What we know:
Domain RNA-binding protein KhpB N-terminal: 8-54
Organism: Clostridium frigidicarnis
Protein name: RNA-binding protein KhpB N-terminal domain-containing protein
Distance between the termini: 75 Å
Amino acid sequence: MHSMNENIFHGRSLEECISNACNSLNISSDNINYEIIEKRGILKKSITIKVLNEVKEELNREIKLESCKEDTKVKEDSKENSLDGFLEIKDGKLRIEDPKDGGNPASLLIPPNLDITVNGESSKGIIKVTSESQVKVNFPKETAKRNLNITVSENDMKAYISISYSPEHVYGLKDCEKNNKIMIGTEVKKLEYPPKFNKEEIIKELDKASIKYGVIEGAFNDDDLSKDKEYILIAQGVKPIDDEEDSIQIKFNIDKKKFKEDERGNVDYKNIGAVDMVEKGALIGELIQGKVGKDGKTVKGKVLPCKKRKKVIFKAGNGCEQVGNLIYSTTNGKPAFKGGIFQVNPVYEVNESVDIAMGNIEYSGDVYINGEVKDGMEIKVGGNLKISQNTTYAHVLAEGNIEIEGNVISSQVYAGGENNSILSYVKLIQALKEQLQGLLDSMVEVKKFGIVKENNKDGEVIKALIESKFKKLPRLCVELIKNEYISDELKTLMITKLMYLAPLNIKHFNELDDIIKCITLDIEEYSGKIAIPSYVTIDYCQDSTVRSTGDVYIVGKGQYVSDISCNGIVEFKREDAISRGGDITAKYEIRAQEVGSVAGVSTRLKVEKDGHIYAKKAYGNTTFVIGNKEHTLDCESNNVHVYMDSFGEVVVDRLKA
Length: 657
């Protein structure tokens, strides 16, 4: 496409634009002067150039004008100039006729854009010629070209080819009628295209570009290969198909009204009254295995591994057996499923209150007490425990979940059995590890900046730091020495390097790192033993201790000066629930409604450093603890959210009341 006034040319490629300009302006590609003024498109490209041969075009116009005038003069004075010589271009050949006696030789007008020699000399402008003159036209030479480009997507999943052909332009002289003065011109006589790409050539180019996989046979269509084409999809990789996750089907009946799934997505039945009894031999669980996936591959042959499914826990616990992917009950009782383990526990039902007359209860399975647990009584259960009324001045322990529908007054409630003791030990050695890590970091700073004199031994500096900055460390050591779970190795290290004057025995502060490594091994060992979390659900508690290896849910009016601690979350369900006084500790999250009191009773809420605390209303003197940092409210606040930011600082989002 060409704009005559501005010498603007359009095309799908630069070569096409130049070719169009050469044809239109009779300029060889070697002499053309141009600039690119626009490029557009990614898949469908276009380019625009502007030819800048202004001086040459002006001279052309002068020659054409002079030729036109001379031609007019020849026509007007044809009789007077009949003796002059003549020129003619016919069928692309120049014929020169000499003048007769008294006449003038013919004149040849040579434009500046043509390379013409007359008698061996390069000539421009108006030249007199005779039949003896040797006129040689050096036509522009343009070699036919073909291009094949391969483009690969960023993720190597698709490969494209782009093909273009540029023909050779075969030029000849433009015919001109007989006259005593003519302007010589050239024109394209024919276009000679290069050979078309074939399948073998393309495969060879693909191999050079390392395209080894997913080549599309249909892309070698003759119609596509014989024309200019952009971004033909030539090869396509295969995306990986991930494994399907295994799933577990529960085959026993559940009362959906009583059941509520754990907020973190764990499959567990906290409400032990939500599950029906099963008989011996009943199918209670089935493992449905997901389909195996398939690896993918890029066009360059790189294997893209599929995501493998996570191995789910699917085991038979007490009271059941596994046969392949099925689990059957081996006894009559209440089925349970927690942490991937099925159990069937025999059920002991007590249809009266537990008091001195009945005596304490110790049972290996599930226990239902349809009454109260009165002063001084002790309940110890190997499975789940449900108490339908109040529990006062009692000690209640269950390996499984505990559900108390009444009030808990001045009692101890422990869900998870021995796991609670293990959990307490893990928390103690985690606290000791934090203290030792801080002590080690301080020693590194002391050494780096030369804070103490060179003659001070590391043990002396460590002892001074413990006495001034890490005062909790000795108390933790004393408490841990008495714990039944502490290993002999850790106990020896604490006695010989940390307690009383023992830090003076430390020769190099790196010895602290040996103690930290020993603690880390203990944490990993005992944390792995708390495999199945147990949950506590109570209505209200006062002046009581509640421990759980899972979550604690308070579904009634709240708690008063109690000590509640769990390895999951603590949540007050009722919108008017009150938490007044005491300590509440959770690993992940505490969700409270109203905390503290107008009188400023001290209430303490604590989570680990990655945890969150929420309260709809909190009074002054309420303390929020995140990890080892705390913040105490100075005034009544609403919509409180407390957490630790990425810089290790406690953030308190709130609205002042």
